[in-house]
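Dear colleague,

Following up on Tuesday's group meeting, I ran the structure prediction for the two-component complex that the binding team flagged. I've pasted the input sequences exactly as they went in, so you can double-check that nothing got truncated or mislabelled along the way. The structure tokens for the whole assembly follow below. Feel free to forward this to whoever is handling the docking comparison.

Inputs:
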Amino acid sequence: MTTAMKVKAAPRTGVDWFLLLIKSVMFFFITTGIILFILQQIDPGNPIASRLNDDATGLTADQFEGLVIAGLTQGAMYGLIALGYSMVYGVLGFINFAHGEVFMVGAMTGMITSNKLNDAGAWESNFILSMLFIVVLSILVSTLTAVVMERVAYRPLRGSPRLIPLITSIGVSFFIQNVSVVLLGPGAKSYPDLPDWLSKKRDIWFISIEGTRLLVVLVAAVSMVGLWYLVERTKTGKAMRAVAEDKEIASLMGINVNRIIVTTFAVGGAMAGVAGILWGIMFRSVIHTTGFLPGIKAFSAAVVGGIGNLNGAMAGGLSLGSAEAIAPLVILEPWGVSGVSQLRDAVAFSVLILVLLVKPTGLFGERLSSEDRT
Amino acid sequence: MTDTIAVAPARGILEQNWRKILNYGLLLALAEVFISLANMPVALDDFVLIEPILSLGYVSLLWLPLVLGFGIGSEKVLEGMTVHAKGVRELVAGACVGLIGGAGLSLLTVLIDNYDLRDPLVNWSPQLLDLLGFDQGVGFGVGIWLAIGGGLGLLGGAMHLITPVARRVVATMALAVVFVAVLETILSDIAEDLFLEWLSDWIYFIRGGVTLHGTVTVALVAGAYALWGSRAIKGAKASFQALEGAERKQANKVGLMIVVLLTILMPLVLGKITNELLANVGLFLLLALGLNIVIGLAGILDLGYVAFFAVGGYTTAILTSPNRGDSWPDWLPQLWWVVALMVVVVFAGLTGLFIGAPVIRMRGDYLAIVTLGFGEIIRLLFLSDWLGGFTGGAQGVTNVPGVQVFGLANVRGTDPRAVFYLVAFFCAIAIYVSWRLEKSRIGRAWMAVREDESVAEAMGINTVNVKLLAFVVGAVLASFSGAIFAAKVGSVFPTSFIILVSIVILIVVIVGGMGNILGVIAGSAVLIGVLGGPRQPGLLQEFSEFKLLIYGALLIWMMLKRPEGLIPNVRRTRELHQEEFLQDAWLKGEIDHDDEEGNGGGVAPA
């Protein structure tokens, strides 16, 4: 309906020059950081590198491998959450700010059930079965949360000005967080201990990886394949793509748009539920704000990969995860920045800002919806 | 307006919309169980409203059946619809809803008695069981909640049978009693200073709560006001609005003088705690006024607004405190607050430009998330070891001196009255600036950008510059608030500047009324003053556990039911309810079919 108006060769204004300046400075900062890092790796006493940061020790191969693996597993979880953002954005064209809270609800459900199972003794005696049980239960609860959210808060607002649903979703997010505070108490709660065979390190081919991280990667891969099958190979998936393309035409073709939208929320919620459980067994602790930062980062991941694009969401998650694990040490440390691990979150947000500045459509471009939604 | 609405006779008792009743009932039951498990009844049980019989804890359970019992009978009336007269049918519907809700609480009572779910649900407690059973045991509790639910639902439904005037009187009486009871501390404080101690002694019980005869008095006064007083006030308002030209200006001036005088005199009457509350309200009002320009006038959803508050606070602290980080060079002087403020303003404006420039071209929702990211980045930078030498890291900057007002006074947090005057001064500036800007060319440009950016651009508005300007003005106002905050608290820590602050300010602006200065003032007075800020306690300290929950629920409810806010901006309301306006006009035959296409095209969901 609304086509993007491309103005040819608009005159550069002050803002444009400023943006160009920022981009150049960032480009210089990043490339120089990486070059310095490489120089340092080759020769720790390198005069240029040690002038900027003489404490820098560089990284051993093992450390680097550990960082990459940690980043990728973290990224896989971001990717799973990002799928929900991406799907809802593709279909409804708005950012469901409260999606991070769906993830938190999943993690909380897992915490409650796993502790109950642990009390009953089933957690140790029959780990795999109880694991399956908490995964199924948390998928159910997060799916339900997402569906109720859509029904109560978003459906009445369909067709209202763009920012209204976004503000509502901020309210929903705030509300769910505080529901968790008043019902379950404000403190952090922990998952029961995992069996040794799961958490110990294993050597696979030439890398050594903790069992939990392996599990995260496997589960993420399986979910991704399942989602791909759903969207690309089933009738529901076809309907979802059609609704994303154009709601009115889709409904003229006999597609029940409301049902498809609910399905979209449900599938996104299920993915977030899986991610919640994975988060729980990875970090073993949940609190009501657990959903906030991962939620924002997952959104960033969705944008990095091109919002509305499912493969892009997963790829964006993996790149964001590894970027926030590696970039502080590879880019910031050579510049003499101290305490870089504190700046991980700042790095993640900077990635979002940079991607939006340099390539707003993301690495893979928008696919589910081509229309300009301004 | 209502000339196209036909009235039909009342429907039969059994001619109910049973599905709607079931929905409402289940909603009520769920809400009541949630409120119980959220610990509201137990936590608020000590807050006595009417001396021997009613506490705020019970009120938290009792108001919902009333409201929903009334709500089930109400119908949305649009132009051209047929309405049925109200009758016993509404009573039955209300009672059914109330009964289902009461059944929910009864079920909860039985469940608490038989199962122990205290592990995940922290409030699944014996205290709650006692409260639900009125200390009389489970069986009594089950029966009484069914009776109370049904009764209150019936009462709610009965509100349809009395005339609108009577309904208004009843509502005013109930609200007045709750109002007087809830505001006990502040009202008795004022009464004491106005030599009305005998009055507060008559109304209030010694250990808190309104006495029975006090309740009757308040209810009678409120009822009389609803019957006669409100009409007199409405008449005065109408005659005020009828004034024109010079007379209107004169009247405005007098009104303004009264407000200014009240602002100056009120703190003298109030106690320390209330003044502290007022100072907090002022700080948040200053922030809200700034955000109102950004989001209310220019329509930019800035979620990282706290960043400017932080920049204002930190810059002030660093420039004035002797205890700033070690990495600062020695030549950096320790300034007076007033001098430091000049630097703060410049610095905040620059930060606004720096954050604004990259985001200003992004579409609205991306902009929201990116500004949120900036807000976090700035806090993380202040917190980090890297800049710890400058900002003190997690220890923050302490020993920030008070505000030296030209040697006349030293305004510090220990003297909330002085802080309030300082804040009020800056709020007055902010109000004046917002008011003038709104009526100016720039203000109109902001509103045009908010309504439709492409059209605004086509009209020759430089949208980028205009939006950047909104960002900068908002940033400067927020930095004022930050500067006062630093001097008031005497220290700044990264934890004072979390994203939560941004969201609370957003809620204040939206609940009050985006784009309306009066609305923003009312919003901050009601929310921050009564419920409290993100870290600051409000008048109802008992609510501090629940205030964020209430804020969240309020934001959702506002967006669904009244997105224009409590005191709306006229133009903004039209934007948000365009479809309804068009429909009304169409029904009245003000626009014809062909025209509707042209006008309605813009409203269709894009």
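Residues 594-606 of chain B have pLDDT under 50 and may be disordered.

Cheers,
M.
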